[in-house]
Amino acid sequence: MTPTEWGIVALALAGAFFGGVAAVGLVRLPDVYTRSHAASKSDTLGAILAIAAAALALQSGLSTAKSVFLLLFMFITNPTAAHAVARAAQDQGIEPWTADEGDEP
Amino acid sequence: MSTGDADPAAGDDEGPGLYVESTIIMTTVRLVAPFILTFALFIMFHGADSPGGGFQGGVIAGSVVMMLAFAYGIDSTRQWLDVRVVSALASGGVFAFVGIGLGAMALGGQFLQYAEFEALFGHAIKYAIELVELGIGAIVAAVAIGLFFLLAAGFDGVAEGDSS
């Protein structure tokens, strides 16, 4: 395998790993703030790594450029959306989960 | 939050008029909105020969207004974008579609028979399809915006901007 192919495989695997971390966090974490934290950070990273792998694998001018645009906008909009969700939750007066409430996380 | 504005969790009876903007969301929306509109036009113009078209592009263009409303507050967006503009967009799209369709009939063809426009300008089929796609896009965008404003106004159909 060429170094480019190794890079594609590494990026795709890393993207799948962070996507899996985001999914586990979304299911396991207790409330909206922690879930949004898991989903925004890990999922953004996973999606970006996966798109980077696709951009590297396409290797043709136009499709790679489109993938890079997608990557850039993902980088900007995904954390902003998570910020908006967390902010709306705080506007609604949702209390953050704390350990002494006795909930099973 | 990082903006350090007034504590938004304090009031539990806040109406839409007391919406506090977030610098992060406003900056992102201002940065991203032109690209989304460009992308909507790109999708509309691609309807003739590749995936895309007026419906998809129109929804994307309408979602820009929803994004602006989420960033700057629904009521200020409603004041900025007059309902007459939305109505004019929708009816203008209808007129563009019907005009293209009936224009082909006036030139002696069938409804929406684009080839008849070849007498007026070159590449008539391509340009006529693009015009129809733009018309459909305008209709869909205006209907999406209007539905969003109607849903945001509540079930009695009255805007509650000046209640507080």
UniProtKB/TrEMBL annotation, chain A:
The answer to whether keyword Transmembrane helix applies is yes
Spell out where the chain crosses the membrane: 6-27, 48-76
Keyword set, alphabetical order: Membrane, Transmembrane, Transmembrane helix
Looking up InterPro entries in the UniProt record yields: PhaG_MnhG_YufB
What the entry lists under Pfam families is as follows: PhaG_MnhG_YufB (PF03334)
Molecular function terms, GO-annotated = sodium:proton antiporter activity
Q: Would I find Lyase among this entry's keywords?
A: no
Cross-referenced NCBIfam families, in alphabetical order?
CPA3_mnhG_phaG, PRK12674.1-2
Q: Quote the PANTHER family the UniProt record gives.
A: ANTIPORTER SUBUNIT MNHG2-RELATED
Instruction: Please identify the protein, giving its name as recorded.
Output: Na+/H+ antiporter subunit G
What is the protein's species of origin?
Answer: Halorubrum ezzemoulense DSM 17463
Q: What is the lineage of its organism?
A: Archaea, Methanobacteriati, Methanobacteriota, Stenosarchaea group, Halobacteria
Automatic annotation (TrEMBL), chain B:
Transmembrane parts of this sequence: 24-45, 57-74, 94-115, 127-155
Where on the tree of life does the source sit, at the highest rank?
A: Archaea
- Give me the Gene Ontology terms describing cellular component: plasma membrane
Q: Which Pfam families match?
A: MnhB
Specify the protein's topology with respect to the membrane.
Multi-pass membrane protein
* Alphabetical keyword list: Cell membrane, Membrane, Transmembrane, Transmembrane helix
Q: Principal localization? A: membrane
Does the record's keyword annotation contain Transmembrane helix? yes
Subcellular localization, per the record? Cell membrane
Q: Give start and end of each Na+/H+ antiporter MnhB subunit-related protein domain.
A: 24-144
Q: Does the keyword Transmembrane helix apply?
A: yes
Which PANTHER family would you find in this protein's record?
NA(+)/H(+) ANTIPORTER SUBUNIT B, NA(+)_H(+) ANTIPORTER SUBUNIT B
State the name under which the record lists this protein.
Cation:proton antiporter
Q: Which source organism?
A: Halorubrum ezzemoulense DSM 17463
Q: What is the lineage of its organism?
A: Archaea, Methanobacteriati, Methanobacteriota, Stenosarchaea group, Halobacteria
